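Minutes, project check-in
Item: structure for the 661-residue chain
Input as provided by the requester:
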Amino acid sequence: MRSNDMEKQTISVDIGGTFTDIVIMQGNRIKKAFKIPTSVRAPADAVIEGIRLAGLDHIDEVIHATTIATNSILGQHNLELPRTALLTTNGFADVIEIGRQNRPSIYDLRFRKPVPIVMRKLRYEVDERIGPDGKVIRAVNPKALEKIVLDLNLRKIDAIAISFLHSYLNPRNEVLAGKILRKKFEHVSLSSEISAEPREFERTSTAVVNAALSPIMTDYLNKLSTSLSKLGCRQINMMSNSGGLMKLHEVISRPIKIIESGPTAGVIAANEFAKAIGDRNVISFDMGGTTAKASAIVANSIATTGEYEVGGSSNHGRMIKGTGYPVRTQFVDIAEVSAGGGTVIWKDDAGILNIGPQSAGSDPGPACYGLGGEQPTITDANLVLGYISRESPGRTIMLDKEKSIKSLSLLGDPVMVAEKAISLADLEMARAIRLVTYERGLDPRGFVLYAFGGAGPQHAARVAELLGSTEVIIPTTPAEFSAIGLVQADWKYEESMAYPSDLEADYARLTVKISQLGDDIAISLSADCRYKGQGTDLSVPVSSVSMAKIKEDFETLHSSTYGFTLQREVEISAIRVTGTRSREKPGFERMSAIKKESHTRKARESGKWHSLPVYSRDSLPSGVAVKGPAMIDEPGTTTLIPTGWSSTIGSHGEIRMVLHK
């Protein structure tokens, strides 16, 4: 490595709902990893503060992931959406409200569909029409659009989405409308630019979400860029939903591309760590302060999906939708549930104990933080049961166990409530893993569970047992592991096209478009396929541009996913070309630390109190074995090794836990 490469300093920053994780890399070595509380009302402040704490003399690159887009849609932390308008084809103003009539809770009489992001009076119908063959039936009238522009100005609109019928086949009318509107408005999203794919509801929803996020992300990223420039930062890149890095200007124009950037980084890190130590089939399990995320990795290949519901809640089936706003773009296939360290424990009107979806976040946080929070959380339960130490992750203060006991006592006996809440959280997280395994035709018993996040290592072994899995890996630096995934990511470029008229020629056209972006770009192809008449697609990797081969691969995938095939024509709804350009990645070497002696801590195990041995992770050399029940403490988290489990420290510093049947 050249000397200037060895001195290159990169900072990765992952803003979560509770903590902001920061990793400092010099050359290809990770120097330091730490976390600070997320500044919920001014998230950029946490980034700047963390970089100042790093005390670097220069910064060559910042790689960033953030939850600000998701939180804006959810309306969290007083993040209100901008005033957004929609221009659509005459007669289609109510498409975003009608949706698909999905009802995720068919017996819940109180269920309410998500409130449309664009209110009815801000949806404008335009007298234009593109036919289903892509031909212009009626062109846009510029004078009519000028009248709409005047009304938009009077209503003080911040952002505009344009979604005309069949514009994915011919964007002419959208482009003309966009040209007129962009003379007066900065934030205009065209569905043909954002999601040039069929299905008018999903395409319109995608354009609307992108438009609504555009002013928020533009303001945030411009302020962040200015602040980082003052600190000497030369470049800012962002993690995308699909697992690759993006330039800042790409994110500003398409903020939907980073909605799930933080959870995606964790999956990247799990896969790279698995490659380093020789595991191929891996379940990425990330339990942080707000949610728990799971993704299945088969043969070191990360699965992606073409649609996601932002602002929605996970259900008891991946096919059950209707709680959020559909977004059509590439996402790493992740299931997310409301089970994090800050998840609130509560009782319903019938006196039944529940957890989530409410979270205490970082302010006021769990009761044990001592910042004014009074509601009990999963972190409070873990503290009372002895599964974590009083040393607070990311803070100089100590956790207050008495406050945890007081908050849990509001619901009953604090120990019994804590045990029940932990059990509910384990079940909820096991459900998330089932969504990305069983529902994809995968058996989790054949996978190694990679657990990380500040709360993951405490729950990992119990969650694995619920799934029938017998092996768990706790990677190095688990509390900041997602931020490590940011520096493990490659550049990624994506192009798609709906309803290809000439399969070979259209793939070639998209491939040339990506290849022009730089040298050494590896190209991969895929196709969104379905049986004719089906309402859902499956993404099929394309090894040969042949309809016969694509059909064969689709039917194999359909059989493994759903358990059956049909005697029906297979059609392609969209083709995709992805380009990947590799970056130099750091190794997973153990960071040096002060040696500490082992001690004991009173903890609950198998329904009884025990004095369990507690080891400092930094004091355990490779090859040493620890038999459960025991705990291994480290900055930011604790690994719980229950009865029946044993662990060994691997060559890369990983904790490999094995269940003895």
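Outcome recorded: The longest strand covers residues 570-581.
No further action items on this chain.
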